[in-house]
């Protein structure tokens, strides 16, 4: 059930107590406001033990929400390269994850987020702090536009995953990955960097 | 709980037996292959009684899956008018439904479809036979392209609903409806009628 942290020394009950405290803290206070110190206090352990078990707040968060993958490891391959094709690379990376064994954990996470407000909150924090913040900082677009652009891109990606892997609507469910990349990549690109008439007062910097 | 059929004569147990048989038939055989005659036989009633209670196979299907709205009533307002803005009208209609009391039933349906394979099948049949078939027949594009175009548009709409109304990712969740229409409408339009380079061998008829 837990094979991501590499090492798991000490008492499994302690580890589980930390994860329980972390889930509550991240869901109630959000990722940024939840501190390792407060999580350690709630779990009745020393903060050094939390660092020892999980390494960083990012990694504790991924473990607490059973994240299928670590965006920090995957996103550099998406962000590096021609910025005009970042949408395609993002869709290609997504399909790679969901077509892999990690996709099963991803479907479980999505199911849980749709049915449980508490998991929905964790997923929201995950998307904003682990995925969108990284992508959007890299793009360097107008900071005022970034949050809406990010959530529009997230909606497109989430719908793709929902229809292809959960509802399994054909022919999208069986379409070759590169067909999906060609179809959905430009839509994601438009949300991230394209001009969005009627949404923002001016076209974004660098657009024609 | 059921206020859509206008009249509900006869025995409520009989009505419920028909709905149970209909759910099984539509989920197992699909909308097109499920016949009112077979559903009546499974429920132990005369087919005339099914027509009497529900009117048509479309309406029986909507009742069986607790559909929040009847697409046959809503879609004419989307399909009539400038075909180049059908994406915007589709998004505007969707937001109207999800912002209305019917949106609560819609969230319940989506939750159920994400967690239950059986409801996922019904939702798939609903999307294909009640929504996409009507939209795509109206557009009159290349029949070979219609199913994939329809499922791509459905994925975009589903993701919008998921992020705005279920996961409630900000600022998308609180964005004014017309901002969302301006942002997402063109993406839906592209899926339905735009050229999709790398997806189909040729641009669709009528595109530049």
TrEMBL record, chains A, B:
Residues 12-72 form the HTH tetR-type domain. The keyword Cytoplasm does not apply. Residues 35-54 bind DNA. Keywords: DNA-binding. The keyword DNA-binding applies. This is TetR family transcriptional regulator.
């Amino acid at each position: 059930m837990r094979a991501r942290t590499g090492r798991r020394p000490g008492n499994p009950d302690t580890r589980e107590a930390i994860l329980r405290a972390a889930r509550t803290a991240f869901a109630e206070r959000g990722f940024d406001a939840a501190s390792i110190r407060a999580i350690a206090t709630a779990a009745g352990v020393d903060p050094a033990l939390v660092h020892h078990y999980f390494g960083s707040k990012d990694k504790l968060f991924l473990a607490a929400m059973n994240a299928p993958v670590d965006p920090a490891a995957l996103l550099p391959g998406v962000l590096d390269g021609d910025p005009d094709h970042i949408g395609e690379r993002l869709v290609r990376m997504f399909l790679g994850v969901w077509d892999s064994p990690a996709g099963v954990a991803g479907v479980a996470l999505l199911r849980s987020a749709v049915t449980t407000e508490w998991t929905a909150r964790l997923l929201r924090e995950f998307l904003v702090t682990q995925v969108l913040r990284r992508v959007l900082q890299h793009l360097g677009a107008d900071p005022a536009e970034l949050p809406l652009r990010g959530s529009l891109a997230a909606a497109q990606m989430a719908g793709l995953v929902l229809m292809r892997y959960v509802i399994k609507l054909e022919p999208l469910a069986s379409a070759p990955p590169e067909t999906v990349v060609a179809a959905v990549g430009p839509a994601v690109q438009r949300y991230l960097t394209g001009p969005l008439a009627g949404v923002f007062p001016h076209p974004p910097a660098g657009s024609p």
